[in-house]
Fold this sequence. Notes:
globular, 6 helices, mainly alpha, three-stranded parallel sheet, single chain
Amino acid sequence: xxxAALVRKERDGRQQIVHAELERLRRAQQLLDRYEQLxxxxxxxxxxxxxxxxxxxxxxKDGYEGVKRLRADPSYSLVILDLTMPxxxxxxxxxxxxxxxxxxxxxxxxxxxxGGDEVEPELPEAxxxxxxxxxxxxxxxxxxxxxxLRRAVM
Length: 154
């Protein structure tokens, strides 16, 4: 009887640990879902401001789709890359862009939520044309897009 009670107690403790871990993972997923919704809203807002300025916008769900689209149609005037895209990240997409003679000249604006002081020094070596932190400031995005396009024409 004592042995059975100890085993049962130990099993209940493990179940509590498993339930606590599952709860922690559920909360983490909720935070990620909220972040994704917030960022998607910001991206949509920035896209609508660019469209109001008569830019034609095409969005890819991940890096693989972005590379596939560029291979199919290398006539884009500008690529805005998120360094933390799902699938293939922005750095790898940039490597693909710069590694192809068809897309190497396309200007690239890097967008990231991570600190500019850490990322910005890498940009010249990675051959990015400009950098912008994800602040959600659509007017700043518009100004940077226009500046990168202006420099590309010169």
